[in-house]
Amino acid sequence: MSPEGAQSIATYDAVVALGEAMERLEKNSDFKIVFGEHFIEAFAVTNVMQIAQYDEAGRARSAEKMLARSHFMQFIEMIKNDKTLAQQAIIDINEDAELDESNGDEE
After folding, report:
1. What's the rounded Cα separation, in Å, for the pair 81 and 59?
2. What distance in Å separates the CA atoms of residue 17 and residue 77, rounded to the nearest whole number?
3. What is the distance between the alpha carbons of residues 79 and 23, in angstroms, rounded to a whole number?
4. Which listed site, 17, 50, 73, 91, has its alpha carbon 20 to 30 Å from 8?
5. Using one digit for the tens of pLDDT, what is the confidence trace for 19-58?
6. 88 and 10 in contact (C-beta within 8 Å)?
7. Helices marked H in the chain
């Protein structure tokens, strides 16, 4: 395997490790309570239910809070999606290296 391939695998390994850490975090009971139940679910429902009661400034603040929630959820999904892509990239690099070796093109 080329040095570039090895370096790429190391980079992808770090992305996979981050994704695995996120998956462990999502299973953590404290994370579920604080972020799952309160920030993502209850907080969002409360803001949506109360939006009609706010003046223009209050609605703007509520919209900012909902955007923060949305960005946080997208961030979590991005980390998990990046893990999947990195795992596939590692498989592809290893397959290419095996192909090169079997063809006698080892560098």
Report:
1. 32
2. 15
3. 9
4. 73
5. 999 999 999 999 999 988 888 877 777 777 777 787 888 8
6. no
7. 3-27, 29-31, 43-50, 56-102
